[in-house]
Amino acid sequence: MHCLRLALGLGFCLLLGITLCSLWMYVENWLLVSYIPYYLPCPEILSQYPQPKLLEQKPTELLTLTPWLAPIVSEGTFNAELLHHIYQPLNLTIGLTAFAVGNRYTRFVQHFLESAERFFMQGYRVHYYIFTHDPQAIPQVPLGPGRRLSVIPVPGPSQWEEASMRRMEAISVHIAKRAHREVDYLFCLDVDMAFRNPWGPETLGDLVAAIHPDYFTVPRHQFPYERRPVSTAFVADGEGDFYYGRAVFGGRVARVYEFTRGCHMGILADKANGIMAACQEESHLNRRFLSHKPSKVLSPEYLWDDRKPQPPSLKLIRFSTLNKDTARLRS
Amino acid sequence: MAEPSPAPTRSNEPASTKATYFWGNRTKSCLCLILLFAVLLGFYSSPEAHHVQGRRESLTLSEGDGHLDSCRIPEVPRLLYPKAQLLKPLRVDVLVMTPWFAPVVWDGTFDSALLDVQFRNTTIGLTVFAIKKYVVFLRLFLETAEKYFMVGHKVIYYVFTDRPADVPQIALQDGRQVVVLHVGNYRRWQDISMHRMEMISNFSRRRFLREVDYLVCLYVDMKFSDHVGVEILAPLFGTLHPGFYAADRQSFTYERRPLSRAYIPRDEGDFYYAGGFFGGSVPEVYRLTTACHQAMTADQAQGIEAVWHDESHLNRYLLSHKPSKVLSPEYLWDEQMLQRPPLLRKLRYVAVPMNHTEIRSR
């Protein structure tokens, strides 16, 4: 009788265990897939903004829509105040990843964070994720209210290429482990850059890419795509929309997860075939953006090279390379 | 005094007999049930079941930026098409994007081949109301829709009518079907127009959610005259009314009486949207039509009817829930009433000339 009661008890425990397991999996999935209403509710308090003018007479200098109807964001294409009134009530948290792996990169963190504190997503909750091999080298930068910083330790690089190739993997693992619970949107930026002007909710989108400053006037056959068919990052002649930069990409956290995972799989497949793409990670990023088109594209205002003269078509540079000489003088 | 222990006779029985009694029918069925539950739960928590859940959830999820629709960014296979030039805007004569990043869809701003590939696994539902004498418009409407509307995609035409026998038989392409929904009619044409919202809302929940991905809600007294494709699809879209695309917001014929739920003050408003062409993903159309229907019911209780009926309520909704795409007047035009300007390179969906008073009377 004792044995049989035990059996019944075990059976009950098994049932309970399975119930709890499936309940947990359901809840976890539900949390992963958090609902952000697609529509942009406009609160009653904002009524004063100019009416959009349908018959636009002034020629816009930059293309504002891609052929798949994704907006191309540049100064003048949006009403910052309207967008702020729309996005602010949604209580979003925006994540920002930056990799400071290698001693030459940790010294950029201070200026990067200070400029982000001034210009990046002002008025929103922000969570910085600094990936580094040397957590001690990350300086304490004072952060505004609602803004936090987490240092994520990663193994040090043996070569620069090796570090940049592991970025996609590190981001996707990080999202799966914690970022999916902590942020709604995630941007992945290069750390040896700085914010110069406001970077706000106009950049939020499902999957966001930025146009590389060196190639926006160049025809597609001159893009530095990977041209060897054996690579998974291969792009044939006659294909290509824009050449996107690896220094800026982002979007909804679930999309960034899929994107970085897809890139990482491509990188692994190439590694197995003993091949490394022409521009390393950037080639894979461009390959993926060709087949999974971004839902929003940022003009080179959002990814600029300060060594180039600013053309009149770009009105407001918001994020650009830190002049390496200035950096050396600073440190 | 203590009660005797329950079933005292049992305690005197030998253990083996007790054992056999324990494994009697009750216990066996109990254990069987437990095992069955365990198996069912195990199945439920399997990856396939989550896929099913994910599919349903993908219909309720929407984008934060209100733009490209699919929850899974669709993979586009290799396709050859001309490259977009960043320094060469395609249309400089018109606004192609609203200040909240909704594209305004004009000819020349999009690549149909690319969009067709992105939307290749999409089913589109088209709702049209043919009540009383309006059934006469169905033949031309459906025939031109077969030629121009979402060609190459799966389409379900939902024809709401009070005269199912009068719905014409049209030859349909592959992957397209007509579903006739028998509904009641109303005496006044205004009531018919307003009850569109209620009926679309009801059927969205009952049927459309399971059958289609997007809904396009159209007026029947029109015909298609040029390509209307997946470039219009978005979580929520409205169409610019052809009479007001160049007008100032003060002259939009919004409902101006504060008592009505469709009230919009004179200094507010982006565009004047037409009641005859709106749509979006099924959940968003459900929300829109439910909100409009509730607002109209509230107005009715107050004894007020908005100046342009369901169109006024649609405009009120789209002011507070900004559409993720706006269709240019190419998508709704009336050649009899308006002079065609050069900025309209194509006329895709146009009014059919008719005698309103004759049709609307019984």
UniProtKB/TrEMBL annotation, chain A:
Its cofactor is Mn(2+). The active site is at 282 (nucleophile). UDP-N-acetyl-alpha-D-galactosamine binds at residues 99-101, 190-192. CDD domains: Glyco_transf_6. An alpha-L-fucosyl-(1->2)-beta-D-galactosyl derivative binds at residues 212, 282, 305. It comes from the Eukaryota. It is a single-pass type II membrane protein. One of its GO terms (cellular component) is membrane. One of its GO terms (biological process) is carbohydrate metabolic process. Mn(2+) binds at residues 190, 192. Its main location: membrane. Pfam families: Glyco_transf_6 (PF03414). It is found in: Membrane. The keyword Methyltransferase does not apply. The keyword Nucleotide-binding does not apply. One of its GO terms (molecular function) is metal ion binding. Keywords: Glycosyltransferase, Manganese, Membrane, Metal-binding, Signal-anchor, Transferase, Transmembrane, Transmembrane helix. InterPro entries: Glyco_trans_6, Nucleotide-diphossugar_trans. Signal peptide: none annotated. Binds 1 Mn(2+) ion per subunit. Belongs to the glycosyltransferase 6 family. This is Globoside alpha-1,3-N-acetylgalactosaminyltransferase 1. It comes from Bos taurus (Bovine). The gene is GBGT1.
Automatic annotation (TrEMBL), chain B:
This is ABO, alpha 1-3-N-acetylgalactosaminyltransferase and alpha 1-3-galactosyltransferase. Keywords: Glycosyltransferase, Manganese, Membrane, Metal-binding, Signal-anchor, Transferase, Transmembrane, Transmembrane helix. PANTHER family: GLYCOSYLTRANSFERASE-RELATED, HISTO-BLOOD GROUP ABO SYSTEM TRANSFERASE 1. It comes from the Eukaryota. Signal peptide: none annotated. Pfam families: Glyco_transf_6 (PF03414). An alpha-L-fucosyl-(1->2)-beta-D-galactosyl derivative binds at residues 241, 253, 311, 334. Belongs to the glycosyltransferase 6 family. GO terms for cellular component: membrane. The active site is at 311 (nucleophile). Its cofactor is Mn(2+). SUPFAM superfamilies: Nucleotide-diphospho-sugar transferases. Binds 1 Mn(2+) ion per subunit. The gene is ABO. GO terms for molecular function: hexosyltransferase activity; metal ion binding.
